[in-house]
User: Fold these one by one.
Assistant:
Number 1:
Amino acid sequence: MPEAIRRSDHPADRLAGARYGNRPTMKDVAARAGVGLKTVSRVVNGEPGVTPETERRVQEAIDALGFRRNDSARVLRKGRTASIGLVLEDLADPFYGPLSRAVEEVARAHGALLINGSSAEDPDREQELALALCARRVDGLVIIPAGDDHRYLEPELKAGVATVFVDRPAGKIDADCVLSDNYGGARDGVAHLIAHGHRRIGFIGDMPRIHTAAERLRGYRAAMEDAGIPVEDSWMSLGVTDPQRVRDAAEGMLSGPSPVTAIFAGNNRVTVTVIRVLAEQTRRVALVGFDDIELADLLEPGVTVVAQDAAAIGRTAAERLFRQLDGTLITPERIELPTRLITRGSGELPPAD
Amino acid sequence: MPEAIRRSDHPADRLAGARYGNRPTMKDVAARAGVGLKTVSRVVNGEPGVTPETERRVQEAIDALGFRRNDSARVLRKGRTASIGLVLEDLADPFYGPLSRAVEEVARAHGALLINGSSAEDPDREQELALALCARRVDGLVIIPAGDDHRYLEPELKAGVATVFVDRPAGKIDADCVLSDNYGGARDGVAHLIAHGHRRIGFIGDMPRIHTAAERLRGYRAAMEDAGIPVEDSWMSLGVTDPQRVRDAAEGMLSGPSPVTAIFAGNNRVTVTVIRVLAEQTRRVALVGFDDIELADLLEPGVTVVAQDAAAIGRTAAERLFRQLDGTLITPERIELPTRLITRGSGELPPAD
DNA sequence: TAGAGCCTGGACAACGTTGTCAGATCCGGG
DNA sequence: CCCGGATCTGACAACGTTGTCCAGGCTCTA
C-alpha cells in the first residue's frame, strides 16, 4: 500500500516540538568529565580499557547530569532494536491477555521489549499497525491476523523480519503459524454432545471468513456427519458476535419448528451470552463452548468447554520467532496445538424435549 | 541506579548480528530513481515541490525495492518517537486488559504507538522497564507502580518525559496520578454489609505496602468504626493473594471462635477464590468484592461488587499524558475516580449464625 | 531580451551513538 | 638511555533520516 509510504502522516508530526527537553548526551558527559566521547561510551557499555579513576569521573558526570543513553541512536548504529511487535485483535479480550503475557515473558527472556497494538479485527488497521512496527524496525512480529492477505509483508520477510502468525494462518504468503486445533476441538465438543444423546444441536459462531470460525464450523459439520445427522439451516448462526444478535440467534434456534436440545458456542463471547439466555429458559439445554471462561466451574451447571491454552500458544509463537532470529529456524511451518475438552456439567445434560 | 547504566547489558547484544538484512535506504531509492536523496525524502513525506513525473519515478523505485522508511533514524533526527510506554503489573490480569486497551486507544488517536511490559509486582523490574522505555525515548510513560520510590525517574521528568501514575500513587516524587477511590469504595462496600445486618465481617486483602490494599483496608476499618463495631484481628487477613492461602484465610475466619457472617474481598483474585470457598459452605455467607468480575451476575447468588471502571482510568491517564505533552498541563494532580457498588445478591444476604 | 521571481532538485550538516584505528603514556628490560 | 609492548584514550566516520540553503531552469513581465 503506497499510501502508507507516500502521505506524510507520521504521528510524530502531530506532537509539539521540544526535542525531548534537551537531554544530556555522551558529549555533554564527556565535556563535564574532561574526557573523550568514546571513553564515556566505554564506561556506559562496560567495555574494558578504562582506569578506575577515569571511570569514577565519568560516572560522576553521568549521575550529575542524569544522563541516559539514547537507544534510538544506538539502534541506528547497531541495526537491532531488541524489540518485537505484537498485533492482536483486542487487548481487552480475556483470551489475549495470557497470550500477550506469554509472548512478553519469552521476549523478556531474550532481552527484548514488546510493542503492541490492537487491530480491532480490521484488516486495514492490522496492516497499518504491522507496517508501523516494521518502520520502527522491530526485530520480529507476532501477528494475530485480521485480514486474509498478508502479501504486504513480503518485503519485510525478505528483509529478515522474523514473523509468526498466531491463532489464524497467514494469507497468501508462506510464514510460520501457530494455531489451535480448531477443527478437531469443535468436532470433539460436538461429538461429546452427540454421545450424550443429542441430535438437534445448534451452532453459533463468528463470520466464516475468520479462519477459526470456519474451522470450528467445519468441525461441527464433521461431527454431525460422522453421526449421520443431517444439519438443518435453522440450527446454524454464522457471523454473529454482538450480544443482542447472539441472544436472538439462540432464542431462535430454541423455539423454531425443530428446536435444538444443545448448543455449541463458537467462542468465549458467544458462550457467555448463551449462558445468559439458557439461564432464562425453563427447559434444560446442553451447552459446550469453545474457549474456557473464568468461573465456568462455579455456574450451575458448570460450563463444559473446549479449552485452548492461550499461554502455550503465545509461548510457542514467541519461541519460534526468536529461533528465526537465531537462524536456527528456516522453513516456515504450521503448528497446531491440541485443545482439551473440560467437562463440567452443561455438556453432559441429556436432551430435554 | 548506576548499574543500569554502567554494565553492558543491552539486549540487542544478545541477538545475532545481521543488521536487519540490508534493507534499502533512501539513498538506494534515489540511485535507482536517478534523483537526489532529499527528493526521495520529499516524496516519502508528501512534502511539496516534486513534479508528478519525478514523484512517479521515485514511487516506482520505492515499490520495486520494497523500501520502508527507517523510523529509528527519523526519531533520532526529529526528537519525538510518537510512542508511549505502559508499565503494568500483569497483562494477564483481567483488570489491566481494558485499562491497557483504553490507553492504547487514546495513544492511537494521538498517533502514538504503545510499548508495554509487566512488572510482575516487582519494584526492581518496574524500574528496569521504565528506564528501558526512557532509553528508547518514549514520549511519555503510564506506570502502574510496583514500588514506592520513584525518584529514579527524576531526571526523566526533568527532561520532559510525560508521566502519569495509575492505580497507585507515585512514591517520593511529584507526579500526576489517576486512582480509584479505593478508600471510599471499600467503606461503602463494607457499610453495605453492615446495613444488611452484619457485624462480624472479614477482610481479605493484599499486602498493605500496596497502596490500593492499604486504602481498602482503611475503608474497611472506617466503615466498621462508623458503625461502632470493634474489629477482631482474626477477621483480617493481609498480604494474601495466592489461591491456597486465600482459601486458608477464608476458612479460618469462617470457623474461628467468632466466625464472620460476611466477607469483604480486597480484589478480584481474592473474590474468585472466596466464591469457591463459600460455595462449599453449608451456611450462607455474604460477600462483597472489590473489582467486578465477569459472569458475576450469573452465579447463585450473584456477586455484589465495588466496581472500578478500568477503561475510564486508562483513558483519563492517557489523556492527561498527552495534555502534558501538549503543554496544556503543568501542575501534577491527583485524580480519584469514583467506584460503583453493584448489588447482585451476595452482598444482600442476611447474617446466618 | 533582460531581470525578477518561482519552482524544482540536490549538497551538506546534523541528530547521538558505536567501531576503527592510531596516538599517547607508562612500564620494565636490554 | 632507548625501545618494545601493553595499556589507555580520543578523533573520526558511519548508521538513515530531515532541515537548511543554494543552484539552475523556467515563466512572466517590462
Note: Residues 30, 35-39, 42, 49-51, 54, 73, 75-79 of chain A lie near DNA strand D (CB under 10 Å from a C1').
Number 2:
Amino acid sequence: MTAVETSPLIRKLSAFATLSTGETALMQRLHRRRKTFVSGRDLVHQGQSEQAAYILAEGWVCSYKLQADGSRQIVDFQIPGDFLGLRSLMLRVSDHSFEPIGSIQASEIMRDELLDTLGRSPRLAAAILWAASRDEAMVVEHLVSVARRDADVRLAHFLLELSARLALVGIGGREGYACPLTQYHLADALGLSAIHVNRILRRLREDRLVTFRGGIVRFDDYDRLLERADFDPAYLDHGGPVLG
Amino acid sequence: MTAVETSPLIRKLSAFATLSTGETALMQRLHRRRKTFVSGRDLVHQGQSEQAAYILAEGWVCSYKLQADGSRQIVDFQIPGDFLGLRSLMLRVSDHSFEPIGSIQASEIMRDELLDTLGRSPRLAAAILWAASRDEAMVVEHLVSVARRDADVRLAHFLLELSARLALVGIGGREGYACPLTQYHLADALGLSAIHVNRILRRLREDRLVTFRGGIVRFDDYDRLLERADFDPAYLDHGGPVLG
DNA sequence: CGCTAAATTGACCCGTGTCAACTGGCGTGG
DNA sequence: CCACGCCAGTTGACACGGGTCAATTTAGCG
C-alpha cells in the first residue's frame, strides 16, 4: 500500500469510485504544496478574493460566517480528507472563513488546477463532485437540524454525523472518537448558546446515551442514541463504490 | 437576439462569464427535452435513485426535505434559470424532493450529459460550477438566518434575497415583484410557524418597509428594509462577468 | 502555584410555538 | 345566482424552549 492510497481523501473517494492508478496519480498532483497552519490564524477569511482551496490532510478545521453583530455561525467542521473552500473557488470573494482547530496540515489547490483535473478524467470529476455534493448535503442537513430539531436531538444528530464521517476515513467507530471541539464550537455550529449545550450534554450523559468529556466522545448506548437523534445517514451517501 | 440568448440560465451565467457561440451551443444542448409539470406532483422525491437534474425555464419550484414527524423544511426556492437537483446528480439517492409551485417548465439533464459538457469546455464548467457554488452559498446563508437572525430580520432578508435573484434574470426590481408563495411556504422555509410569519408580515407592513399581499411583494422603503434585514448581497456574487 | 480558558449551575426573561376561533375570497354544484 | 366548502390569511391567549446574566468550579500549563 503506497502513501497515496492511505491519504484520507483517496480513502474517502474510494467510497464512491474505485480509482485507477492514473486517476490516483492525478489526485496526487493536487496534493503538492502541503502547508502547516496553526489555530488563531485563519486559512481564508471572509471577503478575501483568492482563488485557492485546500485538501485537509491532518487535524480539524471549522468554516464559519461572521455576523455584523459579532456572533458567528459555524457552517461545518472539516476533518482529514475534506476539501476546504471548494465552493469559494468559483466565487469572486470567499463568503466565509476557515479556522484551524489546533495545528493542521493542508495542501493548496488553485482554481485552474482543479478545472484541469476535472477535464482530464470524467470519473475523477464525478468523484470530486460527489465529495462536494456530500458536503452540500451536510449543510442542508444542518439547516434542517437548526430549523426543526430540538436541542437534544440536534446535538445527538451532530455527534452521530461526525462519527460516521470519521469512520469513513478510518478514525473512530461505534465506541466513540477523539474530538478537539469545545462546547463553544458546538454552540456556534448548532445555533445554541454554550450554556445550553452544556445543559444538554449533561442530560444526554445522565440518560446514558453519550458522554463528551475531556476531548473524547464516548457512545454509552449507540442504538438508543440513534433513535433519539432522528439520524438517517442516507444523505451522507456512504454506500460503497458506485463506479467500479 | 436568439431564443437561447434570452433563456434565463444563459442570462444568469452571463453574470459570471461572457459565453462564446460555441459555449452557448453546448448549453443549448442541455435544454433539449423540455417538459411541463404541475403542482401537487413532485419532480423528484426524496429517496428516489435517479440520475436526472433539471433546468427550470418557467415558474417556481421549492426543494424540501421531509422529517420523520411529518414537518418539512424548505431548503430553497428555484426560479427561472436555476438548476434543480444538480447536487443529487452525484449522490446515489436524492436527499430531498422538488415540488412545482403552480405549473412549470423544465428541461431534463442526465448525469453523463453534464459531465460531458464540463469536460468539453473549462469556461462553461467554471460557469456551471459558479452557479452551483452560488446555490450552495445561499443554503449557507439560510443556515445563518435560521440559526442567528430573529424572525423579522430573517423574513426581510429572505424577501430581499429573492428580489436580487429575480432581478438577475430580469424579473422585478426595487419596487417589488410577483411572488406565488403562501405564508406556509415562507414558514417552512424560514423555520417559523405560519402564524408567526403572519405576525411578522404585519409588523413589516405597519413599519412601512414591505407589503406582501395578493401574490405581490412591494417594497415600501427599500433602503430602510436593507438596514433592518442585515442583508449583504456579497454571497450572491452578482458582480458582473469575471471571465471576459 | 497562580493564571486563564473551559465547563457548570441557578434564576429569570423573552421570542416563538401552539391552540382555538374567526374572516374573506373564490370556485363549484345545485 | 346563491350556498356551501375550502383554503389562505388573521388575531388573541397562553405555554415553554432556550437565551442571558451572574457566580462558581474545574482543568490545563508555564
Note: Helices of chain B lie at 8-13, 21-30, 111-120, 122-148, 151-168, 183-190, 194-206, 222-229.
Number 3:
Amino acid sequence: MIQKLSEHDREKLQESLATTGQKVTPQREIVFAVLLAKRDHPTVEDVFQRARESMPGLSLATVYNCLETFVGCGLVRQVNHERESTRYCPNLAPHAHFRDEATGRVHDIELPPEILQNLRSILPPGFNSETIEISFHGRSQDHAPRPSSN
Amino acid sequence: MIQKLSEHDREKLQESLATTGQKVTPQREIVFAVLLAKRDHPTVEDVFQRARESMPGLSLATVYNCLETFVGCGLVRQVNHERESTRYCPNLAPHAHFRDEATGRVHDIELPPEILQNLRSILPPGFNSETIEISFHGRSQDHAPRPSSN
DNA sequence: TTGCACTTTGGAATCATTCCAACTCATTCG
DNA sequence: CGAATGAGTTGGAATGATTCCAAAGTGCAA
C-alpha cells in the first residue's frame, strides 16, 4: 500500500501541474506517490499495479495520462531502453542510466557536470542540443537490497 | 535502384555472417546494399521499400530477419529514439546520434575515444558496461545535402 | 535422393500505446 | 437554484511496430 504524499511532495506536484494549467487529482496524487515510493524505474504496468492497491478503480488509461502529464510539466523523466516498455523516473538531477542485462534493472548513474559540458562540446557547429541521453548497457555485481523510498 | 555490393562489401558480409554460421543470400545482399547506399538511418519500412525496387518479391518479415541477423553478427547497429521505429546504421565506428526534432533526421556524431573513456570512468565499481549509447536531441541548422553513399 | 540446416514468406498474434466517446464532478453563470 | 462548461477519468476499440509460426524453398553432404 502506497503512503500518502508528504506535504512537501504534494506542493511540488501542485506547483508543477499549475505551470501547465492543470490540477491535482486523487489519481495524480497516487501515481506520483507510487513513483516516489520506490525509485526503481517502473513501467506503466508496474505503476498501474502498485497504484491499484490504493485505488482499485484506477484505469490503465489514466496511468498513461498521468505519466504523460508529469513528463509534460517536468515532474518526471521517461527512460527508454531499446524497444522495451517505457519506464519512469522521478530523479530530476542530471544522470545517466545503467541497464543491467542480467536483471533487467535500471540504475541511475550520477553525471558530473563537466562530462555533460564535455559532451556538448563534441557537437559540430550548428547543432543545438536540448537534452542528452546516456545509457550504459552491461552487467553489475551490485545486488544491494533496496535503495528504496524518498 | 540499388547498386550491387562491391567485392569488398560482399566479402565483409560473407565473413561477418560466417562468424555466426550463417550464409549470404540474395535477400541479405540487397538489404545490406540498401544500408550502405544511403546512410540515413532508415527504418525497417524504409529498407523494405528501397529493397523492393530491386527485388519485388521481398517480404517485410525477411527484412526484419536480415536486419536482426546483421545486428547479431555485428554488421550494423540499431538506433532507437524514444518509442519510434527502430532505425539501422552501418557505421560501426563509435559515434553518438543527434536527433533533429525539426526534421526527424538522425545524424552521426563522431565520438572521441577520450570521451568514451571519460564516461566509462563515472561508473561506480562493480558496473561493467559493454556498450554506451549517447543520443542528443535538439535542432540543427545543418541542411547539407547528402553526405551519402559509398 | 534423401536428409538436414538454414532461409524465406504471408498471415496471424502480440504488446505497448493511443484514441475515442461516454461519463463524472466541480465550478461558473444566468 | 439549474444549466453550461471544462478538465479529468474510464473501458474498450484501434493502431502500429514487431514477433511468431507453420509451410515452402534452397542448397549441400552423405
Note: Chain B is about 40% helix and 20% strand.
